[in-house]
Design brief:
Largest sheet of chain B: 5 strands, parallel
Order of helices and strands of chain A: HHEEHHEEEEHHEHHEEHEEHEE
Number of strands of chain A: 13
Strand content of chain B: 15-25%
CATH class of the largest domain in chain A: Alpha Beta
Low-confidence stretches of chain B: none
Largest sheet of chain A: 6 strands, antiparallel
Mean pLDDT of chain A: 85
Strand content of chain A: 15-25%
Shape of chain A: elongated
Number of strands of chain B: 5
Oligomer: heterodimer
Structural class of chain B: alpha/beta
Radius of gyration of chain B: 14 Å
Number of helices of chain B: 5
Helix content of chain B: 25-40%
Mean pLDDT of chain B: 87
Distance between the termini of chain A: 75 Å
Chain lengths: ~400, ~150
């Protein structure tokens, strides 16, 4: 018996403690008048529109931001069905959706990923984003809608989309232009040079020295023009063949280019040292072109009387690879560091060093198309160090 | 020996003349026939219109950019016509574009040559065509499966 009464006493004490805790909690939750005013102020100050509707869909509370956004006067919306704010086209459907939400309420964003429209008082429509949350009260269930005007965001998205489309169109046109230009320009050029040469061939003995010189200059001009057109074509096609991108081994790429440069390397009696290079994501043909141009330049701009040494190295730097192509050639004034990467920019006369002045512009465009960058460290007589930085990321499967 | 028949499909008179010049002092006696557009080329090959007496060419030299019907279309038609498909087609064009090269072989061109800008090289190319197709290879017309 004693045990039983002991248990009862303990049970009563526990119940008492639980009651106290509940009272304390209720007291804490009950707002003082200041708190209630703050809450009302918060609602009115909210930059988002807030609307509360009852289970019948009748608007019971509308904050200032919602009234302004929707073009209504103070208090004008209270008592109206929420459907007055839904565009006519979807009002009928909205009733059904509202009822479905009322039977299974949960906090959610309405039309996630869609831009919804709200109907303003003057009938115009406003792009909005809406979040819904159920509100249970002793007076019943309500639905709180938080409405945000997304006109600006939608406009900027539309602008962005239009700009992207315009850019793509302009790129396509550029590709087409470059192709047509290079192709159709070649033909008349070929006529000019071929017939000048035929003239020279057939009438060589009848022409004097001057005439032969003039023909020579004209033919040389036509050939240079052809080289420029061909380079322009190469330049315009960079980045076009995206389908050829994949995981590539730079060791193989460099080896392949060195093979095609074998004769030039031998003629220059150059030493080419290639360190272990990484695998990267890219287009093999384009990356090959980069090394071809850089090694080709290193051979071309070698220092007279000095054995050319070209070294290709790589270094892992966090999220990037740095690949360096260094030579001991003539180098250049560092003030031209930027300019050499621009199309058709040359630092030497053609009689000193032949070329169209597009090689490094091609390199830059390819490297940038691969998400990287290319710079040069150089000084007159001190060789050049071309530094390529490429992102080191695994391919997205 | 019977002269070789060459059909040159080319709209540029300058190129026609150059080809003629190159073939003039060629090793083989040849007849160069010229069609200035794709429609005329096919009419020649099918002996239609004013070409009823046209000989069957031993080889076709085909430019790609032509009026009315371009070289790719001519190539596709020749290579899908049982009467014409055995005639070797040498694509001889200004274009060095890889897309053009691949497309030409897809349409079963027998070879693709980019016209060199340099006159000497151009003459060499035409002479090489002559040499290769008329002295080195055996043509369908040599083995009796060619034209009647």
């Amino acid at each position: 018996m004693a045990d039983d009464s002991e248990k009862t006493r303990e049970a009563l004490l526990a119940e008492l403690a639980s009651c106290r805790a509940q009272i304390t909690k209720l007291e804490r939750n009950r707002l003082d008048p200041v708190g209630e005013r703050l809450l009302a102020g918060l609602l009115q100050a909210s930059p988002d529109g807030v609307l509360i509707a009852d289970s019948e869909g009748t608007l019971r509370l509308v904050n200032h931001a919602a009234e302004v956004m929707l073009g209504y006067g103070p208090g004008e919306l209270v008592g109206k069905p929420i459907e007055v704010l839904v565009p006519a086209a979807s009002a009928a459907r909205h009733v059904g959706l509202r009822k479905a939400f009322a039977s299974e309420p949960q906090v959610r964003r309405m039309g996630t990923g869609l831009t919804l429209s709200a109907r303003r008082k003057d009938g115009s429509e406003l792009p909005v984003e809406i979040s819904l949350s159920p509100l249970e009260t002793p007076d019943g269930r309500f639905v709180v809608s938080s409405v945000r005007d997304v006109t600006e965001r939608r406009d900027s998205e539309m602008l962005q989309r239009r700009q992207a489309e315009a850019l793509e169109r302009s790129n396509d046109q550029l590709q087409q232009f470059a192709y047509v230009a290079s192709h159709d320009l070649q033909e008349p050029l070929r006529m000019v040079s071929s017939y000048l040469q035929l003239l020279d061939r057939r009438y060589h003995d009848k022409l004097d020295e001057d005439a032969r010189d003039f023909i020579g200059f004209a033919v040389d001009g036509a050939k240079r023009m052809q080289a420029l057109i061909n380079d322009l074509l190469v330049y315009s096609r960079i980045g076009v063949r995206e389908e050829l991108r994949g995981r590539i081994d730079l060791n193989e790429i460099v080896a392949r280019e060195l093979k095609s440069l074998e004769v030039a390397v031998r003629e220059a009696a150059a030493v080419v040292e290639v360190a272990r290079l990484p695998m990267i994501n890219g287009e093999g043909g384009e990356m090959g072109q980069v090394f071809l141009n850089l090694i080709g330049n290193a051979l071309k701009f070698r220092k007279p009387g000095v054995e050319p040494v070209i070294s290709i190295t790589s270094e892992h730097r966090g999220d990037t690879w740095q690949i360096t192509v260094a030579d001991n050639g003539i180098g250049m004034d560092p003030q031209y560091k930027e300019r050499i990467f621009q199309i058709f920019q040359r630092l030497h006369t053609r009689s000193e060093y032949p070329g169209t002045g597009i090689g490094l512009a091609i390199c830059k465009r390819i490297i940038e198309g691969h998400g990287g960058s290319i710079t040069v460290d150089t000084a007159p007589g001190a060789g050049s160090k071309f530094k390529i930085t490429l992102p080191n990321r695994r391919p997205t499967p | 020996m019977k002269p070789i028949e060459i059909l040159l499909v080319e709209d540029n008179p300058g190129d026609v003349r150059l080809t003629r010049e190159a073939l003039r002092d060629g090793k083989m006696k040849n007849n160069l026939h010229v069609a200035m557009d794709g429609v005329e080329a096919l009419a020649f090959l099918r002996r239609e219109g004013r070409h009823t007496a046209a000989p069957r060419p031993d080889v076709i030299l085909l430019d790609l950019n032509l009026p009315k019907k371009n070289g790719r279309e001519v190539l596709a038609e020749v290579k899908s016509d049982p009467e014409l498909m055995r005639i070797p087609v040498v694509v001889l064009t200004t274009s060095a574009d890889e897309h053009d090269v691949l497309k030409a072989y897809e349409y079963h061109a027998n070879c693709y040559i980019t016209k060199p800008v340099d006159l000497e090289k151009f003459l060499d190319v035409v002479r090489s065509i002559e040499d290769f197709w008329f002295t080195i290879v055996r043509l369908p017309s040599d083995v009796g499966h060619g034209p009647k």
